[in-house]
Amino acid sequence: MSVGIMPHNEVIRIGDAYLLPLVSNLYGLQGYEVKPVK
By residue range, what is the domain housing residue 2? Predict the structure, then answer.
């Protein structure tokens, strides 16, 4: 059984596309700019 490993930038792209809007809707953050922590 092989486990696929995703490149970091692919994970970030999926997070930006799906997780940020979901979190924004859950916590009422529409209109705020969300930036990753460095």
Answer: 1-38
